[in-house]
Every structure is written in C-alpha cells, then in structure tokens.
Amino acid sequence: MKTKILSVASKRLVFKPNLADYEKEYKRFSYTEHEFELSYLNDHKINAAYNAVDRHIISWRKNKIALFWEGEDGTAKKYSFLDLCILSNKFANVLKKYKVKRGDRVFIFLPRVPELYISFLAILKIGAIAGTLFSAFQSQALEDRLGNSDAKILITNSELKKRVDVVRKNLPKLEKIITVEEEFWKEIEKASSALHIAAMSKSDPAFMLYTSGTTGKPKGVVHQHYAILHEHLTAKWVLDIKDEDTYWCTADPGWVTGIAYEILGSWSNGVSTLVYEGRFDPEKWYDLLSRYRITVWYTAPTAIRMLAAASAKLVKKYDLSFLRHMASVGEPLNPEPIYWGLKAFGKPFHDNYWQTETGGIVIANYPSLPIKPGSMGKPVPGITAAIVDDKGHELGPQKEGNLALKPGWPGMMIKIWRRAEKYNSYFKNGWYITGDKAYRDEDGYYWFIGRSDDVIKTSGERVGPFEVESALIGHPSVIEAGVIGKPDQMRGEIIKAFVVLKKDVQANDKLKEEISLFVKKNLAGHAYPREIEFIDKLPKTRSGKIMRRILKAKELGLPIGDTSTLEEY
Ligand code: WTA
User: Fold this and answer.
1) Using a 6 Å cutoff on CB, does residue 255 contact ligand 1?
2) Residue 436 CB less than 6 A away from ligand 1
C-alpha cells in the first residue's frame, strides 16, 4: 500500500525530542534500567502519588505551579506542587480519621475540580485504592460500580450526590459520602499536614476504573503503583513533556487518560498542567491554548474533528505559536484531521493507541519518527506487539488479525476486580489480546481496523452495549433491545438501539425521544442512544443471545455473513 509520509523534516522540529533515537532505545530498553527515574521510599517501596507530586519538592527541592485550574465560569486557581503535596497529605489524614485502610476502595464522583485531583493523590498516599466515576453517570451506572467495588467512602458534590442517594439503600458497604461543599474543606482545615506516606510494593493496587466489554456489566480494571514507571516514560517519550512545558490534557479522570496523563505520568515529569472544568467549545479551547501558552496538547479525534468543523477564521484569531507538540488518543485518527492540524497549527497531531487495561500508551507516533497519517505508529520501548490469529499465533506484515501485546509491562492491569476468570480470558498463547483488529506494515507501523467485539466508542468514550440494553429494557414500553455503534463522521460512532416494543404501544418519534431520555437519565449522560429504530424481533442465536453483528450488517447494508447459529429470523 502506498502511503503519504510526513517526514520528520516536514514537522519542522525546533527542539530536541526526549526520545531522539527510537530504534536504538527500543532495542536496548529494559524497565529495570529506567527504575532510577522513580523515587523510592524505604526498602525499595514506592508510592505513585509520591512520585507524581511530593518528590519534586522533597527529592529535588523544586517547586512550581503543578495545576492551573479554570472553572466553567472563568474562575481561575493555581496550585504549586507544594500546595498539592500539603493538601493531599491533609486530606489523607481526613480519610484516615474515617478509618480508611490499605486496600479499601475510595471513589471520586466529581467534575474536573481541584478537589478531584487532591482526593486522588490522598487516596493513593495511604495505600487505599482510588476509583473514579465520570460525572455523566446516573444512578444505575453508579450503583453497579460502587456496589461491585464495595466502595467505603465516596467524594462528590451535593448536586451529584442526589444520584447516589437514590440507590444508597442498595450500597450497604458505602459508609460515608464526603461532599466538597461541606466536609471536604472544613475537614482539611482541621487536619494535620504531616503524613507518613504508605510504602507500597510495586504490585500493590493503586487505582481502578470500570470499563465496558461486550457482555455483562462493566468490569473493574485494577492498576498497580508500579504503573507510574510506564506512565512516566511514555509521558516523557510520546507526549515529549519537558520541565518548562505547560501541558493540557483534555481528558477527564473519569477515564483512564485523565488518570495516567493528567495526574500520574505527566506530573511525574514535573510539568505544569492545565485543567479546564468546562465542556468542549471551540472558541474557549483556542482561548485557553493561547492564554495559558500551552506547549504540549493531548486530546482526542472527535474534538479535533469538531475544531476542524468550526469556522476556519476562528483559529486565526488566536496566537497558538507556543504549541510545540500535539498528540491524540482514544479512537482512530483519520488522515484528514492530521492534515487540518498541519494547516491550522503548522504541525501534525501524533496519534497513539492504548486502553484502560494497558494503563498507558503502548503504540505511538513520536516527534522523532515520520508519521504515516492514519497509522497508530510503533510500539513504545518496553512493549512487544504483534498481530496474531485467533489461536494466538503470530501473523506477518500486511495480515489482518488481533492486536496482541506480550504481558509484563508495569502499566498492564493486575486484575479485574473479583473476576479472575474474566482476567484470564484476555490471554492466549502467551499474548494479551487487546480486542482490537489491526495489521502491521513492513516498516513496523500498526494500522487500526476496528474492534473484534461489540464495544462502542462514541466521541472517544467507551460504552458497553449490554449496559445500554439493560437500561433500555427498564423502560415500561420496551420488551427487548439490541445496541450497536453506528459509524458517524464526527463522533466516530453513535449509539444506535433496535427496540422491540410491548404489544399495543404506539410506535412514534415522541416515544423514541422519551426512551432515549430515559437512558440518559438512568444510565449516563454520554451513553444514551442518539438513534432508535423500532423492530418486531431481534436476531438471536438459538441459545437466545442477541446477534449485534447482524444488526450492524443490516444497518450498514452489508452481507450478513455466517448465520448458522441464528435462530429463525
Ligand atoms: C480504541 C482509551 C484507534 C480501541 C485510552 C481501544 C483507538 C479502546 C486508539 C480503548 C487509536 C484507543 N486508534 N482506536 N489511536 N486509541 N482506541 O479503554 O478500540 O477508553 O481498545 O482507553 O479505544 O478505550 P479506553
């Protein structure tokens, strides 16, 4: 296949990349040789929060702004590394007062406010496991996640708390809810700033995130403290973060990118980070980029496409000359937005690939390597990637297959909460199978093809069809539902639901709207079907499983494929 290549020269680098020679580093790489980049507590013990924040002050006696925060209403606040260190120590002592112990689950359900970042660090500092919940989640999603994890404490605000109150009776293990308006700051004021940071083994759990698969409710992916090494190195090499940078990661810590590259890996490199509380808005985003003189920007394809679709004049109004490096993750970055980026900012977006389960970037484009627009790039040093068949046997270049990774890197999940068999099902013939289809070209670049299961990526957010289907059948007019990701120019995919209605129910557009809103209100503000189609019967296997593959083929007008397991339809 002939591809247009963006050479390194065409990127007009005016700086020396942190990873100057990819091939050399890749060949000689070993994690143990890079362990010196971490700071240790006694007995070779670590703590990821200490590495992200405290060590900058304690080991290197260096303080600077860690967090530039801007609220939706324009309020701005600044926190130095020392501020974050002290505030998280204090809040850690508050948690101790509430008898939080090592291994206890403490969840955060907040928009992107400073209290989220302070809480996250505090939880890790006492050896508890931090869980984050995206602020669009509604009662059902919250009950599933807080219930499965047996969360002991929840930190939230008084508005979001109402959604938890509705299901509180089903959460007997949830001992306390701390709201940021009430106890949070009052307790912090009273608390001591002296804290004995928990010395953790590398493999001790640090944080967990619920993520979606094809079947069943979301699963709790657990990561270890040692993941910080992988996150530190990839933030340095892929995001090319340098000490003097001002960095903006637009992700939300309700998802893994916000944890790994807005809190852990990025702060571990000592960078000043911008967090903007508000929603996507082209004018506001350009304003932030220019006002904070952002030099490194990590964002997502849907946002880039939406910026490109906004007025071309807009981008010219702002001084964006400080931007030095731009990267993108979460869904396929097609070549058009890369070319748009070149035109708008004079430099390309660098696509990279990873998952909640991988804990950090595993395949990437680097400043020092040419970009083949449309490709996810090459494995990061420390990662062995391959394309394998369904039995786990390696395939050669240009062969489509399962994207697989050799287990053993520090960012790799250590378990699925309470579901050992689910964790084991990820592995085949010594490979971790990502669930994505891809191929590799002769130069070692990886090209994304699609998911091998029914997981949906809408605006870069991962949604499991089963969760949406379960929410749909909670509606009094619905008997059954099948949910798929329908390709969408802007959002990558949108959620489409095929719905079977109860007898005698009037099928009309008003009902479609009502059902859609029902899911939005009960499950999540981002995981509702934007499109609903009423049908008489869902395609199912003889054992009664909904065949979403057939719904998708029907939707796209594609051949239906093997129907030998299909019940009469
Ligand atoms: C998809 C997000 C194409 C993929 C960090 C993966 C991508 C899932 C890319 C993980 C990319 C992520 N190109 N697809 N560069 N990056 N994906 O767990 O399907 O929210 O398995 O983690 O997003 O989504 P998750």
Assistant:
1) yes
2) yes
